[in-house]
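Posting for a labmate who doesn't have an account.
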Amino acid sequence: AQGRVTRLVTQNVDGLHQAAGSPDVIDLHGRLDVLTCLACGDRSPRHAFQQRLLAHNPDWAPGSAAPLPDGDADLENVDFSAFVVPPCTLCGGLLKPDVVFFGENVPRNRVDAAFAALHAADGLLVVGSSLMVYSGYRFAVAARGRT
């Protein structure tokens, strides 16, 4: 069925679909490699922020915390009082990963793009999702209503 999949809507935030060569991806829950300013809405690449973060905090080199079995770092006894979080370069606002956190809404433009892709499609194939999260489930409900 080559050429039949025209859009890919993913709840993943890692960018691996693009890295694997998927050309037309809607990142429903955003991307970890992009930051968003909470004040002005500017979006910027994470790698640029990471360089600024390291420049502001040279003593916080990667690997300075003990890794835990689940992949997290053991930071329980670490003093964060001198840690500097660089602000947005445009307005000085607070930056966050451009991902939908628990309790947040999926940005309307992403939902609209996913619905537009669904309405233009002949069908919907769900792979690797339990559809327990409403942000993905709603598309399956909408597709079922079209049959």
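Reply:
Got it, the structure tokens are right above this. The beta strands are 8-10, 25-27, 30-37, 43-45, 66-67, 73-74, 95-99.
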